[in-house]
Fold this protein.
Amino acid sequence: MDTDFLGKGWKYPIQTETTIQNDSEQSFIADSENEEKIRESIAIILGTAKGERIMHPDFGCGINELVFEVNNATTRTLVAFHIKEALREWERRIEVLDVVAKSDSKEENKLLITINYRIRSSNLKANLVYPFYLERGNG
């Protein structure tokens, strides 16, 4: 399988790795590739609010606009909608199959968002659970 299409680059969040060769220690920025790179890309898209990147104001996902909403079916549906739209726009290496936002049974302000997707170049199906926290309100 040709994985060049999936990409290779710095690991997110940025990390360093250290190797020792011939009693010499070398540190470098860790990288990731293939399916791991796609997972990191999804996390970057979901964690970036629209307007956050000055030179690319449309990049990101609109879920941060919902952080002060009540944890109910409407909010969960909107979260899933914003995620589907953002991933369709910004992560073209995948086809989004389904996004489901559910309340966490242990934390009332936490949503567990399951993203099911297919990697286009390999037809490999994968999923990711992304936690999203709503602010606790007084209402």
The chain has one domain: 33-133.
